[in-house]
Amino acid sequence: MYEYLVKGGVLMIPIAACSVVGLAVFFERAWTLRASRNVPREVVRRAEDLVRRGQIEEALAFCRRSRSPVARILLAALKNAGLERDAVKEAVQEVGRREAAHLERYVGVLGTVANVSPLLGLLGTVSGMIKAFTVISVEGVGNPASLAGGISEALITTAAGLTVAIPAFVAYRYFLSRVDRLVLELEQHAIHFVDLVKQPPVRDEARAAGQRA
Q1: Does residue 208 lie in a domain region?
Q2: What is the pLDDT of residues 24-44, one digit of tens each?
Q3: Residue 81 included in any domain
């Protein structure tokens, strides 16, 4: 491996750096974007159960203790409990946008690595071919061994760039789809929770008052 790095020339250094960055982001996002961490079912069930029993303060305390994105979204709804549906929905959407941005964090880095790595490989290819043609212009084509350095540099950097770019692009698309699924699930829970804590319609209150009278 070290021999290939040396033969690939100086451009193997940024390509190797791209591979390290891409690998670090992959493991960080794989850990962060787990469904059990972002949308834990037990948190949603417990919060809904407390709200249905009218224990809003207990639900607020429970959601504050949980550090998951869904708990922060439910907390925004609980803080506006009793208001009109549009007011509760707006508060939840504001928090939801922040949580979605947090989920998407660093995913773009994988896209950048996928785009930059093959370009670095292409640059190495051009550099290696320039060296090969320089040797030809000086020594001619009678000694193939003298051309090997430039040609090997061209091929190695191209292969290295593609080797980094292909898995980075696959991981980028995978995490984008994962973020989309998590955001959709968060939205579904948020809408359901908004309907739980919104202010009852005026006509229902009037009807209830008439029945009591």
Answers
A1: no
A2: 999 999 999 998 889 898 999
A3: yes
Instruction: Give me the sign of the Cα torsion angle 56, 92, 185, 72.
Output: negative
Could you tell me the two tokens for 47?
């919060």
Of 10, 76, 66, 15, give the one whose Cα is nearest residue 43: 66
Secondary structure of residue 14 in the 3-state scheme: helix
Nearest in space to 162 (alpha carbons), one of 7, 6, 8, 2: 8
Q: How far apart are CA 131 and CA 172, in angstroms?
A: 35
First to last CA, the chain: 87
Q: Which domain holds residue 93?
A: 2-200
Neighbours of 174 (CB within 10 A): 16
**How confident is the model over 39-62, as pLDDT tens digits?**
898 999 999 898 888 888 898 999
Is 96 domain-assigned? yes
Predicted model pTM: 0.79
Residues of the chain with pLDDT under 70: 1-8, 133, 135-150, 199-213
- Please compute, for residue 28, the number of CA atoms within 13 A of its CA located in the half-sphere on the CB side: 15
Number of domains in the chain: 1
pLDDT of residue 8: 63
CA distance 98 to 78: 17
Give the pair of three-digit tokens for residue 161.
Answer: 């760039």
Q: How many CB atoms are located within 10 Å of the residue 54 CB?
A: 9
